[in-house]
Write a structure and sequence with these properties.
- This protein is of the alpha/beta class.
- The protein is 24% helix and 35% strand.
- The chain is built from ten helices and 39 strands.
- The strands form nine sheets. It has a six-stranded parallel beta barrel with strand order 24-25-28-30-29-26. Strands 11-15-19-18 form a four-stranded antiparallel β-sheet, with no helix packed on it. Strands 1-2-4 form a three-stranded antiparallel β-sheet.
């Protein structure tokens, strides 16, 4: 037979015969054995029958007995065949009635049994005096069994009491409390989900103490993040009577509640795992413990030197805490739910501050800026976007469009400005709309309407106009010269006959044709000159048409360039000045300037005055309000 052949299944173990003291108990030369095939209640019934019949298990192996009946305690020894060997005693002997009287009653309270050990005496033979004797452990177990204590005897305590009869009250048996199981838990299985708050190392080897190395971990798709460890049932306990005490059921958990967007539950032979299904940033909701993987970074710790340091991010960012003073956030699409005291730089997307901005700054290269709360002593600049504020105080603001409910002592520059109430502000834009204007303390209310400079276009229009005048004069000269040439009698007569011949009104005989040919030869020089003057006239007219089209194009360009500048002040409630300020539409963006330059320019004395009043309303704007 080959070594790799599968052995036939083992035959079932033979049961004990029924010739023993009990149907599952067998007496052998070396001791009393219980049938390992029927451990538990069957052995319990057999042992109970033996002990209640007035017998004692001599040389009892109490731990083996308890294991065989209640499956509690050390494992049973095994024989050569691998089967448990359940030797519970050396022999079964009668319990002497006289000795049974030596054993006192036991006191049971609080899951413990107390026995009072004291000297014991037996009557001497033939009625003689009492003889001191000692208790026996095997008899003690049998007596306790009949008194209802079938579990938890303290072997060492009992033997110590027997050896020292004057020991007094001793706890001889204890209830076994159930062992609690293990609740289902979740453990981390990936190091990628851990943050690193070590200082960031720069390319030159130096450390940037203001930035952390990896504050917001990024995981790859397919990474196992968490593992669910299933619950484990505890071990039962037992009363002194042997009644089973079930342990509390372990608590399970719903692993799916941990799975957020970008994650899923994976079940395999290795266990149950939470796996990232996409590559992205790890976000953990502390309230729901839900884990999500997405393009947006979500933080709830705030931005400070202690929690995050300065942030340099590649994706969208959402912060639920505060951004502390002098802390910097760089990224795309930034949303902050707390107060902002630091600086925010966005490369694009929406910058949304849902609380207040105080003393900090917000810069967005390609996107909008919106602050839901109060903005004070701050700088807000959207190079290609809209700035929307509720209340702004002492701020410098610039953007493609600026919309503010209430602005106080602010410097604002944009292509379009719309404000509900403006007090003491200096603002400049091509299109301005303000509901109410007023000064504020020592600050004037200054409104600059920006108008495009059209000087170069006007110079071009002037040059084109002069050139068209030259074309008109040349055309007039050619026309007069043609009239003079055609007025000569011979030429007029030849041209008249030639016209009638070409139109078919007249036909010439051979003699007349010869005469007409001679007439043409006579006026030939004048006809050549007429042709030259006509060609020159046509060339001048063509150049004039081209010049006129160019003039119309530049005129339309000027109108388009200059149109759109307007200002509407619906109610003036204090001294308000309106000035006209020139700007070059072909140059750099006029409002994308450093905050200091915006402030100095708007608080200066530039521009041409248009209006100054303390009440009423004012509107200015036309089809072509432009500066020359």
């Amino acid at each position: 037979m080959s070594d790799t052949a599968v052995a036939p299944p083992a035959a079932p173990a033979a049961r004990f015969d029924s010739t023993g003291p009990e149907h599952c108990i067998q007496r052998r030369p070396d001791g009393i054995y219980a049938d390992p095939a029927v451990l538990g209640t069957t052995v319990l019934a057999a042992v109970d029958s033996i002990l209640r019949s007035g017998s004692v298990l001599s040389g009892i192996d109490y731990p083996v007995l308890i294991k065989a009946i209640y499956d509690s305690g050390p494992a049973l020894p095994t024989g050569p065949d691998g089967r448990p060997v359940v030797r519970i005693a050396s022999d079964i002997v009668p319990f002497n009635a006289q000795r049974r009287s030596l054993y006192r009653s036991v006191r049971i309270a609080g899951g413990e049994a107390e026995y009072c050990f004291e000297p014991v005496f037996l009557a001497g033979p033939g009625g003689e005096g009492e003889i001191q004797t000692s208790l026996d452990f095997d008899e003690f177990v049998a007596d306790m069994w009949t008194k209802g204590i079938r579990f938890g005897i303290d072997i060492a305590g009992v033997r110590a009491g027997i050896a020292n009869p004057g020991l007094g009250r001793v706890v001889v048996a204890r209830r076994l409390e159930p062992e609690a199981g293990l609740d289902a838990t979740v453990v981390e299985v990936s190091d990628d989900i851990h943050r690193s708050d070590a200082p960031r190392q720069l390319s030159n080897g130096k450390l940037d103490l203001m930035c952390f190395q990896n504050r917001f971990p990024q995981v790859q798709g397919g990474t196992r993040l968490l593992q669910k460890l299933p619950s484990k049932v505890g071990k039962p306990g037992f009363e002194l009577s042997g009644i089973r005490i079930e342990p509390a059921a372990p608590r399970d958990l719903e692993f799916s509640t941990y799975a957020g967007e970008g994650t899923s539950i994976e079940k395999s032979a290795a266990g149950e795992f939470l796996v990232a299904v996409r590559t992205g940033f790890l976000n953990v909701d502390p309230k729901t413990r839900r884990i999500a993987v997405g393009d947006k970074i979500v933080s709830r710790d705030g931005v400070s030197a202690r929690t995050t340091g300065n942030l340099q991010l590649t994706g969208d960012y959402e912060e639920f805490g505060d951004v502390q003073e002098k802390r910097v956030i760089e990224g795309n699409g930034i949303t902050v739910h707390g107060n902002v005291y630091g600086d925010i730089h966005s490369r694009g997307g929406m910058v949304r501050l849902r609380a207040t901005l105080v003393g900090g700054s917000v810069h967005n290269k390609h996107g909008d800026i919106q602050v839901d709360g109060v903005t004070a002593n701050a700088i807000l600049q959207a190079s290609a976007g809209t700035v929307t504020l509720q209340r702004a105080e002492n701020c410098v603001i610039s953007g493609t469009r600026v919309r503010i409910e209430h602005a106080i002592n602010c410097e604002i520059m944009a292509d379009e400005i719309s404000i509900g109430n403006a007090e003491g502000c200096a603002l400049a834009a091509r299109r301005i709309s303000i509901d109410n204007t007023a000064p504020w303390r020592e600050s004037e209310m200054l409104v600059y309407v920006l108008c495009a400079e059209c000087g170069r276009i006007d110079d071009m229009l002037e040059q084109i106009g002069a050139r068209l005048a030259q074309f008109d004069a040349a055309a007039t000269r050619h026309k007069l010269e043609l009239s003079h040439l055609c007025a000569q009698p011979e030429v007029r007569k030849y041209l008249e006959i030639a016209g009638r011949v070409r139109s078919g009104e007249m036909s010439l005989t051979p003699a007349q044709a010869q005469q007409f040919k001679q007439m043409g030869q006579a006026v030939g020089p004048e006809l050549q000159k007429i042709g030259d003057v006509s060609a020159a006239r046509k060339a001048v007219e063509a150049e004039h048409a081209e010049g006129k089209a160019l003039l119309e194009r530049f005129t339309a360009q000027r109108i388009e360039r200059a149109a759109g500048s307007e200002v509407k002040l619906r109610l003036l409630q204090g001294d308000t000045q309106v000035r006209q300020l020139a700007f070059d539409p072909d140059g750099a963006c006029f409002y994308d300037l450093p905050a200091r330059e915006i402030k100095s320019r708007l608080r200066g004395n530039e521009g041409t005055p248009l209006h100054a009043a303390a009440s009423g309303s004012y509107a200015w704007g036309g089809a072509a309000p432009a500066l020359p």
